[in-house]
């Protein structure tokens, strides 16, 4: 008996233009697949994230995220891509709200009408904590930055990313990090950030080579920490962020520290659709 094909789309998240933002493969499962198969498919797509949806009931879905090398507990851009997929193809019973059961708990996404029949996706994510850097000294961070100057170092929880404040927007854009050193970090990866141009509140880049992602084009989960950090630093709860990767991306953020939540908003564009045949 032939195996049922698995429907998929590749969706660029946190952008309004094709081939920008962060691409994610979104696969809709009609039957259970084992973890080995899920990881093999993610490795085949070889994108920063491949996610898998399974309908639970109505507008509630199970959602799992895989990099080319492992499953992760939270991914912002692939959640936005999954939401865009469900809303665009009318696959959820509710036209403007879906709910996901994930390793990070229940996450919700809403469809927010925009201009010219387009729409934003609004995600409610748990806020990350930004704490004092827990390293013994700063020489390791300097090695990660290939000797580039920096102003502050922090750690994020629960991901244990190293968050580094650089002197300027240009310093973020021009950074050439040492990926071999970043692979040695005890946590997930390295975030660099700085104040941005007048159009945006701040900019950032994120490097995660130990998860098979040398540079994540636009990282939603990193912004769960960045939003908290810059909200405190700038004294404002609504922020517009620019991820300064080669593909680039824009995120609209709202921080509610009392409720420990970060609301992320962004657009997405479907660029491919097809079937996994095996």
UniProtKB/TrEMBL annotation:
Claim: Mitochondrion is one of the keywords in the record = no
Q: Which domain of life is it from?
A: Eukaryota
Q: Mind telling me which SUPFAM superfamilies this protein's record contains?
A: Diaminopimelate epimerase-like (SSF54506)
Q: Which UniProt keywords apply?
A: Isomerase
InterPro entries with a match to the protein in the record = Phenazine_PhzF-like
Q: Output the Gene Ontology terms for molecular function.
A: isomerase activity
Q: What is this protein called?
A: Uncharacterized protein
GO CC terms for this protein? cytoplasm
Keyword Iron found: no
Q: Where is the active site?
A: 49
Per the similarity annotation, which family is this?
Belongs to the PhzF family.
- A Pfam family in this protein? PhzC-PhzF
């Amino acid at each position: 008996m032939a195996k049922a094909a698995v429907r998929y789309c590749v969706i660029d998240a946190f952008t309004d233009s094709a081939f920008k933002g962060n691409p994610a493969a979104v696969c809709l499962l009609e039957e259970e697949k084992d973890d080995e198969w899920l990881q093999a498919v993610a490795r085949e797509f070889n994108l920063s994230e491949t996610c898998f949806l399974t309908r639970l009931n109505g507008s509630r879905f199970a959602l799992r995220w895989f990099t080319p090398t492992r499953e992760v507990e939270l991914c912002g851009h692939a959640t936005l891509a999954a939401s865009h997929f469900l809303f665009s193809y009318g696959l959820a019973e509710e036209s403007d709200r879906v709910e996901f059961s994930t390793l990070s708990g229940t996450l919700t996404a809403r469809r927010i009408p925009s201009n010219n029949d387009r729409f934003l996706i609004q995600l409610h994510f748990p806020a990350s904590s930004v704490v004092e850097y827990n390293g013994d000294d700063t020489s390791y961070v300097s090695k990660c930055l290939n000797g580039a100057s920096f102003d502050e170092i922090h750690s994020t929880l629960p991901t244990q990313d190293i968050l580094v404040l650089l002197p300027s927007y240009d310093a973020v854009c021009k950074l050439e990090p040492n990926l071999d050193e970043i692979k040695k970090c005890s946590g997930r990866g390295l975030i660099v950030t700085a104040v941005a141009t007048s159009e945006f509140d701040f900019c950032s880049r994120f490097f995660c080579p130990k998860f098979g992602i040398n540079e994540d084009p636009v990282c939603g989960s990193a912004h769960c920490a960045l939003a908290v950090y810059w909200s405190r630093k700038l004294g404002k709860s609504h922020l517009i962020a620019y991820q300064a990767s080669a593909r680039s991306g824009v995120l609209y953020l709202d921080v509610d520290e009392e409720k420990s939540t970060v609301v992320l908003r962004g657009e997405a564009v479907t660029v491919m659709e097809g079937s996994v045949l095996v």
